[in-house]
User: Fold Septin from Xiphophorus couchianus.
Amino acid sequence: TTSELRYIHWKLDQNYFDQDKEYVGFATLPSQVHRKTVKKGFTFTLMVAGETGLGKSTLINSLFLTDLYRDRKVPNAEERISQTVDIIKHTIGIEEKGIKLRLSIIDTPGFGDAVNNTASWKHVEDYIDQQFEQYFRDESGLNRKNIQDNRVHCLLYFISPFGHGLRPIDVECMKALHVKVNIIPLLAKADSLTQAEVHSKKLKMRDEIKQFGINIYQFPECDSDEDEDFQRQEQILKDSIPFAVIGSNIQVDSKGRRFRGRSYPWGVVEVENPVHSDFLMLRNMLVRTHMQDLKDVTREIHYENYRAQCIQSMTRMMVQERKRSNQSATDFLLLFFQLRKMQEVLERIQEQMQQSQRGTC
Ligand code: GDP
Assistant:
């Protein structure tokens, strides 16, 4: 009967509340957030810069195990001399264990490559600003729900292993960009250096970065209650800057194993071997451990800087406009009073003329 059914429901409810006296339900929030974000998918935008031939495209292919540069055309010497910086964007969708990542790679081919390199990073700077501008517009627009985030979250800056530390163009470029993007410097083609050379070049570059006041991406400080092992790993990461990297597009067979590597007459270099390079450390940090922090710093610091500057210049423009319109109002009033005065003078003259006419009559 109906009353029996009602009793059963009441009993079930009682049981439920008895069991879960301490349980409101918000403990499921993380899994709700998780489900929602997983459904939405993740986006990450990575930019690479450095002169042509330093192994940028090879490293990107190695990092994301995909051939992004299949249709790439390498410019000849003549084209390079007059080359302007073409910014090329590749977007790929990667899926791992049901998690989707829309990865965009922004390549700056020819950067630092032409004969006249004066402010060749200007194009890179403009590109980063344009993405901020677009985001700022979208955020202030009507369709704020579906904004596509194209802001650049990280810049891998390739430094040549053949020079003595940073070149002037590296310093100028990084200084121009460090307020706009998270810069991670890389020591390219590390297999062309001995272990001691890698060590001394890293020290020198870190010193120069400090000396020239370049603000590269800062790894977040560990909390004091953090696991000791984790703290040690973070310190190793900080001490490895600039990451010495090696890239390869081919698989090598050696001693019964198959791996991404470079084969030389004297031996084989393994891209993913931590003894041979910092490649694995870079990939882990980019993908596994610091992707979200790179995005947070982009949003909270670099984008906020841009936004503040935008709002400041908009306010300045508005004040100037108001001053200008106030000025024109004052001009109008002055003119109005002058006209009034002239009118009064005319009226007085007219009156005097009428009086003198009347007198003659
Ligand atoms: P990009 O112009 O900076 O994109 O450079 P590429 O990726 O096209 O590489 C230019 C040349 O350097 C190619 O012949 C690559 O095989 C080679 N190369 C790429 N990465 C490495 C590396 O880590 N070590 C060495 N020795 N050569 C590399």
Summary: The first helix runs from residue 2 to 19. The longest strand covers residues 88-96. The chain has a mean pLDDT of 82. Residues 52-58, 189, 191-192, 246-247 surround guanosine-5'-diphosphate (CB under 6 Å).
